[in-house]
Amino acid sequence: MDENEAAAGRTAPRKRADARRNVEALLDAAAAVFVASGVEAPVRDIAAEAGVGMGTIYRHFPTRADLIIAVYRHQVEACAEAGPALLAAAPTPHAALAGWIDLFVDFLVTKHGLAAALRSDDAGLAALHAHFLDRLVPVCARLLEAAVDAGEIRSDLEAYALMRGVGNLCIGADGDPRYDARRLVGLLVAGLRQAV
């Protein structure tokens, strides 16, 4: 291997890491725009938020469905990774659970409009939903288990039921400015506390 090949080998992983970070920043920008304007927001708004040209978005995500799916998967992964981090950093397991539920609410708001946007691909939606459950239910279960083990919350609730309840409280939040889903979810999480 000559000097040029060795130099190319050293820079290739850095370029890949930079490209990955750029795509993640693009997905974060798209998620922010989706929260503010829904999944039908113009691509130019996403490009402006990300600070890139529209061509960059289309190069990575040729269709709106590709972008929506990528944002959804990116947020599922971020939510899944946040659980253990919150459990390690929060002062109590209940605080970690409450923090994670806040992130989960943000995720649910972002995914608003996903089904309508992908209506033509029912199999794809089923796969996304399965991915969502596979990644997030175990994280929520671990947070609940830690809070139960610490004696902070009641033990008669399963992760799926809690996530479903949170999801139901978030339905329609965008249709009525007087409806505060986050406050209601906060009351639900506070209500899990063990009576002393």
UniProtKB/TrEMBL annotation:
Record keyword DNA-binding present: yes
Domain of life: Bacteria
UniProtKB keywords: DNA-binding, Transcription, Transcription regulation
HTH tetR-type domain mapped to chain residues: 20-79
Cited InterPro entries: Homeodomain-like_sf, HTH-type_TetR-like_transc_reg, HTH_TetR, Tet_transcr_reg_TetR-rel_C_sf, TetR_SbtR-like_C
PANTHER family: HTH-TYPE TRANSCRIPTIONAL REGULATOR BETI (PTHR30055:SF234), HTH-TYPE TRANSCRIPTIONAL REGULATOR RUTR (PTHR30055)
Protein name: TetR/AcrR family transcriptional regulator
Native source species: Streptomyces subrutilus
